[in-house]
User: Fold this.
Amino acid sequence: MEALELSSTIREGSRDYRRGLNINYGRTCDCKPTHINCLSAKEWLKSQLGVWRFYYEARDIRDKNVHPATFPISLSKKVIELFTHEGELVLDPFVGSGTTLVAARDVNRNAVGFDLHKKYIDSCEQRLKEPTLFGKSKQIAIQDDARNISLYFETERISLIWTSPPYANLLNRERKNKSRRFRNNEQLGKIEQYSQDQRDLGTMELDEYTEAMGEIFESLLPLLRPKAHCVINVPDMWWENKRITIHVSLINKLRKHGYELRNVIIWDRTNIVNRIGIFGWPSNYITMGVTFEYLLDFWRPPKTIKK
Ligand SMILES: C[S@@+](CC[C@H](N)C(=O)[O-])C[C@H]1O[C@@H](n2cnc3c(N)ncnc32)[C@H](O)[C@@H]1O
Assistant:
């Protein structure tokens, strides 16, 4: 039955490109059917706080030349453990360096991640080569546009969508390092954007970006089981002294496409940013975007029973 290795990549022209995937999606734990995860009451209690903090570990990718915008494995694991059971299937439509796949493997979940760019699928491949304790679940990295994801799945197979999409065109400009105490580091003047490919959501202004996200997430909704969660990590951004509220645009757009917002969690990043310079003083109060991000938790609403 297992046609693919436990971890693998699919690229344009390969046998499994744009075809239904051979990947398991059913629970392998013995939790009660009504439980949403395998957590104990004690573990659940810790997750109830609305502000979360994480540390990077040695396996995390923090080199901006490898990928400019990774999230920590520990954050990814927490989201996956909160919203899935062992054996279930996680989707990351914008997988980047593959953090979601590494986290899913750590906690024995099947997972599929998509990215437009070869260099990031190479990075996923590299990371998945590292030894694992479990080896029972499968992780696949696919080089394709997120707009094509529905070609790979049957409906209602996915238990969690978890992702950090591009933050509109936040990275598509020269870095000024205005908020840093020491501006003159190797990032100064660099454009960190993933590519100038027209399909890349990181090249788009907010309105076009919001439309593209709406289109993509509309096509993903039928793939989710009813009551399955979809968690999206985004910050807001400042541009020309205006706050660009990416999180508001996404909430409105996804609601229009049938998702229901359940929770807004703040990822407090103050413990992992250092050397912040004074910003705006004394005339313009601006909260530092790098110190927190949003985790927008939606779900596919339960099916309503017609009377
Ligand atoms: C914020 S990064 C994800 C980083 C990831 N969470 C990690 O820890 O490495 C967003 C990713 O979306 C990818 N991307 C942009 N447009 C895309 C599209 N249309 N389809 C698929 N991936 C896309 C970019 O190449 C980038 O790697």
Q: What stands out?
A: Residues 206-220 form the longest helix (15 residues). Residues 67, 69-71, 94, 96-97, 99, 114-117, 120, 145-146, 164-166, 194, 199-202 surround S-adenosylmethionine (CB under 6 Å). The radius of gyration is 19 Å.
